[in-house]
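Cross-posting from the modeling subforum.

Setting up a comparison between two proteins and wanted a second pair of eyes on the formatting. Protein 1 (sequence, then structure tokens):
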Amino acid sequence: MAGGKLTPRQKMINLMYLVFIAMLAMNMSKEVLSAFGLMNERFEGSNMSAMSMNEQMLAGLDSKASEDSHFAEAASKAHKVEAASKKFFEFIGTLKSEVLKGVETDKETGKLPYEAMDKGDNIDNSWFKGEGYSPRGNEIIANIEKYKAEIKAAVGNDSKYVSILKEINDKFNVTDVKNKEGLKVKFLEYHFDKFPSIASLAKLSAWQNDVKKTEADIYSSLLGKAAVAAASMNNFQAIVVLEKNAYFEGEAIKGKVVLGKYDANTKPTGFVGPGRIENGQAVIAMSAGAVGEHPLGGSFTFLEDGKSISIPFKGSYVVVPRPNTANISADKMNVVYRGLPNPMTISFAGIPDNAVTASAAGLTSAGGKGKYNLNPGSGTEVVVNVTGKMADGKSVSDKKVFRIKNIPAPQGAIGGTAGSQKGAKSRLEASTITAVLPDFLYDLNFEVTQFALKVPGQASIVVNGNKVDSRCKAALSRAKAGDQVTISDIKTRVIGASIATKTAAPAIYEIQ
């Protein structure tokens, strides 16, 4: 434009046009850089809002989970999503720090110098190497893939989250991308290589915004799914409501079956009736009247849309005469064992414990209401006699016979294992000889006081205590692989019980 056979004046005009066009290009470039800066500000502002909103949704899920078990699983998944999102969000923050390395904010405005951020050397020199990625570039790709995998693992295979997972994969698809020339280039190269630093910063803020949006989408979905589960008909129960709670033989039974839902979160503002409000429900507390039918009624008061609503209830109960048969049961089984304090519960239905007395050979009080210990002596049976004094002063009596059995002999054990086992000599030398009583109703601790060790081809060695001594070790040193060492004549005593010494069954140990 400024060359050729032109007059000096025309050349000057043409040169001025070139300068003018260059200045327009420079101004446009600055405007574009500023636009990227403003875009970055918008993304960062949106990220702060999304972060606050997500925290509120997560807190809401936790609150609902503490009140309703239907939200417990949703809250658990949400915290996994929160952990994965936070980790990846903060990692992107480290990438933004790399972009801003060496860039200082304006002291007056506090903003970044957008128009001066037209180079991307920090990223170009750090993320790329030759035609591929540097170690830092590979680390970025790995973190993206890890984030996607952790989100998928957190939500599981529920079809409800398919669209969300697809959106994540689309936004963070790290496969090669075709450029405008139709050539495939690396994902990071396509998005960041040779870009102005302010453009890269805005794109990374957009990544963070994608993370927060995904987090919000999953929280919303979890809240909705848990709310549907809480409202499911599976949470309702069919309740039988009879006109009264006791009937005489041949009397007509009348009532109805209704669907009800027990909700601990529904709390009445008031209650009138024979009881009090506890944890959102009325707990009836009253004394039964005389024999016969009695009415039972009252009302709940709830606050709904600022108005007080009363819900009345009514029913009845029947008082029947007190029974005169004792309830006697062995807490462990229907026999008692000699030498042990067999726990028993003894009561008379309808008679307070302080008006019930029981007697038997070896029966003593255990301290609790209706609780006794029966330690039988000789013989094969023991009779428990019970007497109850009713409120009218009359007494009723009953009795029950229990069989007396001896405690069975225990089994010898090596290192806590009964029966036959195999192992090295060193293991047997270091093991403790014990005794156990498998499948017995009582937890008994046996202490071995003496045993005999027999190595094939050698004399039996009697040991006082529960470990092999030097004589046993000498005998074991001459044992060969395949020899079966017998631990027999195992004398035991029960710790904490007055039971005669018992001999446990032998234990066999094969040398390997």
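Protein 2 (same layout):
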Amino acid sequence: MTTPAAAPENASETTAGTAVLPAVTSSELLSVVASRELAARRTVFAGIGLPTLAASLAHLTVAPSIEIVYESGVCGAHPSQLPETIADAVLITGAEAVLSMATLFGSVLQGGHIDVGFLGAAQIDRWGNLNSSVIGDWQRPKVRLPGSGGAMEVMANSREVFVVMRRHDPRSFMDRLDFCTSPGPDRALADGITPLGAGVTRVITDLGILARSGVGEELRLVAVHPGVTPDEVRAATGWDLEVADTVATIPPPTAAELRLLREDVDPGRVYLR
């Protein structure tokens, strides 16, 4: 008798027993891949949205000891459900500490106690500068966005910054930003300011991962999702994107990761869509 081949780790089964891959949305893909990047990290300053999903999933998988910090002053959050805003009351219950804004930004962030700042943005350039303020001209913008919040301080004071981008196209990955909300260390140094951290070191998109080590380096393509080619990523980027000598293929989300994300992290589909 022939032994059937084992189903892939990221497969589920139909009622007939046939292994099939679960349908994965863009939000799920980005959250899972971003969560893996937090392995071995100690503290993460998480923005609301996909960064919250990624940090929460990492806490259940690759980084069980990670401390999640929110802009509202909550440190070591253990919410009973996914927070809808940084001021959501669920963040308070069970938290390790709740600090004033002055203490959070003055002592925790500026004190260099954040390993990873996890942010989103509308636009990013090759040096990791971010725009979350306006699309188009400042005086007459096509779209006015929420603005910095604490992103500028997170950029300047975290040891490194990860960014999750829902769209990878030339309108989001721009040679020149419409507006610079959160300058990275290269731009800060040009203005005579010495930042504490390395700035953006990882950018996770639905095409792959861009990375750099820190000051003086451009973002370059280091990994792609299955079925995506480096040429496709370069065509979707608004500058002449550098490509690593060896480009890895990112393992797709596993059934276990998707189950945790859907059933434990965000069963109410607050951010998953």
